[in-house]
Amino acid sequence: xxxxxxxxxxxxxxxxxxxxxxxxxxxxxxxxxxxxxxxxxxxxxxxxxxxxxxxxxxxxxxxxxxxxxxxxxxxxxxxxxxxxxxxxxxxxxxxxxxxxxxxxxxxxxxxxxxxxxxxxxxxxxxxxxxxxxxxxxxxxxx
Amino acid sequence: xxxxxxxxxxxxxxxxxxxxxxxxxxxxxxxxxxxxxxxxxxxxxxxxxxxxxxxxxxxxxxxxxxxxxxxxxxxxxxxxxxxxxxxxxxxxxxxxxxxxxxxxxxxxxxxxxxxxxxxxxxxxxxxxxxxxxxxxxxxxxx
DNA sequence: ATGCGTATTGCGAATCGTTCGCAATTAACC
DNA sequence: GGTTAATTGCGAACGATTCGCAATACGCAT
Lengths: 142, 142
Ligand SMILES: [Mn+2]
Ligand SMILES: [Mn+2]
Ligand SMILES: [Zn+2]
Ligand SMILES: [Zn+2]
Prior knowledge:
The structure is a homodimer. Helices cover 39% and strands 18% of the residues of chain A. By secondary structure, the first copy, chain A, is of the alpha+beta class. Chain A has 2 domains: 1-84, Orthogonal Bundle (Arc Repressor Mutant, subunit A), CATH 1.10.10.10; 85-142, Dna Ligase, domain 1, CATH 3.30.1490. Chain A has a 3-stranded mixed sheet, covered by helices on one side. Chain A has a two-stranded antiparallel sheet with strand order 1-2. In chain A, helix 3 packs across helix 4 (51-63). The longest helix of chain A has 13 residues, at 51-63. The first copy, chain A, is globular and about 45 Å long. The structure holds manganese (II) ion (2 copies) and zinc ion (ZN) (2 copies).
């Protein structure tokens, strides 16, 4: 099973407090299936955490590395999720907007090529592919 | 030498007029070394084209495929350049913000893998790598 | 060249996502 | 429980982009 992140210790390690709001925001992120906007997080929060505080929490989580922020598709709002490595990249359906994750060594290959052939050590590799997802391209397959 | 795009015919083909403002915006894009914000384009424009009109022109150029829009690094403003294929991806220095282009077949490999192994035809592949550029990581190399 | 009808411009106001300032609250440590 | 600095909530501010609309300028046909 997947290691569960201990929010309290992660925050402590970076010199921050564990507040009820942060805990609630974290709970929403953990429970959500996908990539949420700050507004969605705020809405799903147990006690209705203030939007500005949600932004602050999400920003903090991203800074300390337990959450990941991305801008997907044509979307103008940022979205967050529990952190996952770059290697698991995003495939965004340009019809319905659904996002799938794709693992494998494709991203590693990019890193390796840049390092071996160009002496460049990639800090982050952001890869996002768009196209029609199976549900949208083949309407018959329910 | 690189084929030069004929703005007038590209616009005609898509049912749009060639205006002096569009010509000026295009001139700026063609002449610019890098990736420009709408504000920068407006500023560099011969007759000071209005910012809203610059946005409209850049949006149109992007729609008809002769310009490319990207959001690089932590930057919150969109940037434009004369269109180039996805295969030439972006390497962004997280210290100085400089952007380099990197060609090769890495992006094609991604497309091929997704098609062969998953029957997924990628419409766009957006790849952006971050790290320290040579100038920033090795200060001695002037 | 001239005139027409429509696409396009410029301008300011509006919108949207996100951040800020600051007084009131609260978590962490004693 | 008391102290104190970190955090919250609120509303106002912000920057990027878009919109509405009257004035203008293309493109095409005279
Ligand atoms: Mn993800
Ligand atoms: Mn580019
Ligand atoms: Zn879909
Ligand atoms: Zn640099």
